[in-house]
Amino acid sequence: MINLELPKKLQAAQNQAHQVATQIFRPVSRKYDLAEHEYPVELDTLANLMAAMEDAGEAAAGAKGGRGNKESKGNQNGGNMMSLLNVMETCFGDVGLTLSVPYQGLGNSAIAAVADDEQLERFGNVWASMAITEPSFGSDSAAVSTTAKLDGDEYVINGTKIFITSGSRADHIVVWATVDKSAGRAAIKSFVVPLDHPGVNLDRLEHKLGIKASDTAQITFDNCRIPKENLMGDPEVRTDKGFAGAMQTFDNTRPLVAGMAVGCARAALEEIRGLIEEAGYEIDYDVPSNQQPAVVAKYLEMESDWESAYLLTLRAAWMADNKLPNTKEASMCKAKAGRTGSSVTLGAVELAGTYGYSERSLLEKWSRDSKILDIFEGTQQIQQLVIARRVLNLSSSELK
């Protein structure tokens, strides 16, 4: 029989993250929603706390947290699962603030996924954003046009990246660039670049629909020279392996983004449940939904949708910890949770009526915040394409 109860070690970390969500994030959530681009100073204390927890082995902070335990045998619940539970709980408080926590950027998960041991030692404790998207493309990561040319012992990076989460706050950037345009997907590699490095230019910060506590930047790389050791993974262009090396990053990060959607949707579910019960309706799980008031039936539909997204996301993270191929599962949970996050938060606004649409509650904010979680790290359509290729065992050239 499947046991869905979390181990005690993970329960403790989950409880700590929940305290952060309710006691640190929620009280200042509206403040930073109305003060876009203002740095949340409350996060400095939190970052120090998480660093202490990492040193004590109680948190999956930084890039090192994404590594599973290679030596252990049997089922593992390691860094990926702990990171997932952390973001689920903190996004119950605020998605934008979660994305702004120092040393917990998506670039850190990328480093954890593909860096070798020497690179992990150098970059394991940096705060890394991730730069993939360019003005000429969105979800088609294979269309990267930023170049990295080897010149002696250095790579020279040129190109422009947009929509970089924590692009102005993180101290390093994981940059996707091609080392040989003629070689196609196989030549796309990721490089770790310090933000204050010569040739790195911060162009602007974006104004957004939601996650306003988080900064989103455009950065141009102009003859930016970095040591060749800053290339992560295999430097050789292996056409037989194709894009798999670079795409391995997403196997770690997509479950985390799914977890963000799950956490935000849960916040909306708990808020609307309270409002429904205050209005005098009873949510009865022993009565078929078609025999209950319409508002209760709608709530039960949203809750069951959320439950399936939650379980899919847990499975994808568990597979990553156990070194099982999880590309399909990572895309499945991202597709399901992204869509569920939007439908649940908007559904909660609808059920709450004018109260949900106003700023008297955080329901309208959560509906705005959740939309990006169905877009970045690959849109809904891209996830469905990845899933279809895996299910049908077709290559990207066979199924476009």
Helix-strand pattern: HHHHHHEEEEEEEEHHHHHH
- Give the overall shape: globular
- Please outline the major beta sheet: 4 strands, mixed
Record field, number of beta strands: 8
Rg (C-alpha, Å): 21 Å
Which secondary-structure class do the elements indicate? alpha+beta
Mean pLDDT: 90
Strand order of the largest sheet: 1-4-5-8
Strand content: 5-15%
Compute the separation of the termini in Å.
Answer: 39 Å
CATH architecture of the largest domain: Up-down Bundle
Helical content stands at: 40-55%
Number of self-contained structural domains: 3
Q: What is the CATH topology descriptor of the largest domain? A: Butyryl-CoA Dehydrogenase, subunit A, domain 3
The CATH superfamily name of the largest domain is Butyryl-CoA Dehydrogenase, subunit A, domain 3
* Number of DSSP helical runs: 12
Low-confidence stretches: 60-65
Domain Acyl-CoA oxidase/dehydrogenase middle: 129-224
Family: Belongs to the acyl-CoA dehydrogenase family.
Domain Acyl-CoA dehydrogenase/oxidase C-terminal: 240-392
GO molecular function: acyl-CoA dehydrogenase activity; flavin adenine dinucleotide binding
Notes on the structure:
The chain folds into three domains: 8-123, Orthogonal Bundle (Butyryl-Coa Dehydrogenase, subunit A, domain 1); 128-232, Beta Barrel (Butyryl-CoA Dehydrogenase, subunit A, domain 2); 244-392, Up-down Bundle (Butyryl-CoA Dehydrogenase, subunit A, domain 3). It has twelve helices and eight strands. It has helices at 8-33, 42-55, 79-93, 95-100, 106-114, 117-123, 244-278, 294-321, 327-352, 354-357, 363-371, 380-392; strands at 128-131, 147-151, 154-165, 172-178, 188-194, 200-205, 216-227, 231-232. The strands form two sheets. The chain has a four-stranded mixed β-sheet, covered by helices on one side. A four-stranded antiparallel β-sheet has the order 2-3-7-6, with no helix packed on it. The protein starts with 7 loop residues before the first helix and ends in an 8-residue tail after the last helix. Residues 60-65 have low confidence and may be disordered.
